[in-house]
Design brief:
single chain, 75 residues, alpha+beta, 3-stranded mixed beta sheet, 3 helices, 19% strand
Length: 75
């Protein structure tokens, strides 16, 4: 195999959702709310990304049912 091996699977919070929430918080602070009074939010949106190129390099077959649940598939 040439070059560094990439991640096979990634599961975590949605970056775009995190940025959106941060923007909402900034807007609330700019409107005069105290940062200490703002609630702490837990992420509610998660993303599953599967890298088929890495799976192939490792000799893994990813089932179609898993691919169907992925938010993004890297070919």
């Amino acid at each position: 195999m040439q070059g560094p091996l990439r991640h096979l699977v990634s599961y975590g919070t949605s970056r775009s959702e995190g940025y959106r929430q941060a923007g909402i918080y900034v807007g609330r602070v700019l409107k005069g709310e105290k940062p200490a009074d703002l609630p702490v939010l837990q992420p509610t949106k998660f993303e599953l990304v599967i890298n088929l190129k890495t799976a192939k390099a490792l000799g893994f077959d990813v089932p179609a049912t898993v691919l169907g649940r992925a938010d993004e598939v890297i070919e």
